[in-house]
Specification:
2 copies of one chain form a homodimer.
Chain A (H helix, E strand, L loop, with lengths): L1 H21 L12 H12 L14 H9 L2 H19 L8 E5 L9 H5 L10 H9 L7 H13 L2 E9 H14 L7 E5 L8 H14 L3 E7 L2 H4 L7 E4 L9
Parallel strand pairs in A: 1-2, 1-4, 2-3, 4-5
Helix pairs in contact in A: 4-7
């Protein structure tokens, strides 16, 4: 009896150990219904194969939640920012002050994760009024890896342009203060969407802004955003980087 | 004694069930050292953030192996091809015979997975002579999802161009026969790399080929490849699709 109990305890421990070792630690136990599909969906989104999607597929709600909050999103960000940082180190700046870098704002510099938690991480359709109310609070936290990149760029002498689709008139002041509160100090210009660009797609609007910067003589060494529409189009930059965002799509 | 044994068997089964349900079924048990990092690395590769890499990081050897052979690569392919197929259904073809589609060959139409198994799924650097010997055998199996797409495109009346960086002189005949053996019948043209394009990067060479096709009047509706260099550059196509390939990078 005692020997049997000991043997079974050993089997029990062996199984526990095996299970713990072979599980990705960020994996929630309740997405077993469709983990393969949701991994495929997220990869297809990040590789720009699936476009113009309106909501996260309902069956991927828990997958996206786990991805965003249980560590993998953070690890993905860190690896990309490390990659960017290595690229930055290879650049020799000239002394004409025209070496430029472009960063998107939402979910690039500052995070809307808390807002999207209330929208089931993108399973609910975009809510313009709800998002505006959130953004007006000016309480988006910095994304630490991107703040680290931002500071490095400023210190190295890049002119950093923050380019956002946020409406200048209604969200300008809140955005300026939010960025300042979160430590984004020393950028060259924050460019918000003015009346002229209302109704344009992000690709068209941001291409137009970059064209103007290039027209002013700036060399765009890098361009970082969480949307493909941040890094496609004209004058995209010498190198572009797409940060992960499985919560929403901006055309 | 009997009751204890029964109770322990129930506990055993409960644990097994829990472990099985919470593990992604394709996850190998021996990548627990760095699953998060390897997921990040693969995502960064597929989103074109990490470029010009020469080999798979050694610590990701088992991760990439598991990805390629245990089901997730296959699921990723199927979702992308389903997405492409939905896009194809939206296209109205004209009757001038100039509606074109471009497919890459290696690891798009036909698979080199068996070859790369011998190269530790990309952990060993590219071996031009070894790869040529493999390709000369003409034994690459079709990728079933892409063959399905190919047949749909041909049936719908698209002129399908297979564009590959393979050397025309040495690999032309073997490639033609390999494609035929695997059921790729009815394409418009197989374009291999002729002497004119030797030494050019894939982006430059493939852009040049597409420019010629557009010059002939073709409208490139879609362009599918496993490398970013297949789908970037000039005349890339109305929509481009990047199939997964974490085993090698072609600039």
């Amino acid at each position: 009896m005692q020997r049997l109990r000991e043997a079974l305890v050993l089997v029990f421990l062996a199984i526990c150990s095996k299970a713990v070792n072979s599980m990705p630690f960020w994996w929630p136990s309740d997405t077993a219904d469709a983990p393969g599909y949701c991994l495929s969906w997220r990869l297809a989104v990040e590789a720009n194969n699936i476009r113009a999607w309106r909501t996260v597929p309902t069956q991927c709600s828990r997958h996206v939640e786990a991805y965003m909050i249980a560590g993998q999103y953070q690890r993905d960000l860190t690896l990309i920012v490390d990659t960017i940082s290595t690229y930055v180190d290879t650049i020799t700046l000239s002394d004409d002050g025209l070496d430029a870098w472009i960063l998107d704002v939402d979910d690039t510099c500052i995070s809307n994760l808390f807002y999207y938690r209330g929208k089931r991480y993108g399973c609910e359709p975009f809510d313009p009024l709800g998002f505006r109310a959130w953004a007006l609070q000016g309480g988006c936290p910095a994304i630490p890896d991107v703040l680290r990149l931002f500071n490095k760029l400023v210190e190295r002498g890049f002119k950093v342009f923050l380019v956002t689709g946020r409406d200048e008139e209604t969200l300008g002041q809140a955005t300026i203060q939010n960025l300042e509160n979160q430590g984004f100090l020393g950028y060259q210009r924050l460019i918000l969407r003015s009346g002229t660009y209302k109704g344009l797609s992000a690709i068209t609007y941001k291409s137009e802004i970059r064209k103007q910067l290039v027209g002013e003589g700036y060399r765009i060494w890098g361009n970082v955003g969480d949307q493909w529409s941040d890094v496609q189009g004209d004058y995209a930059g010498n190198r572009t980087f797409k940060l992960p965002n499985p919560m929403y799509f901006i055309p």
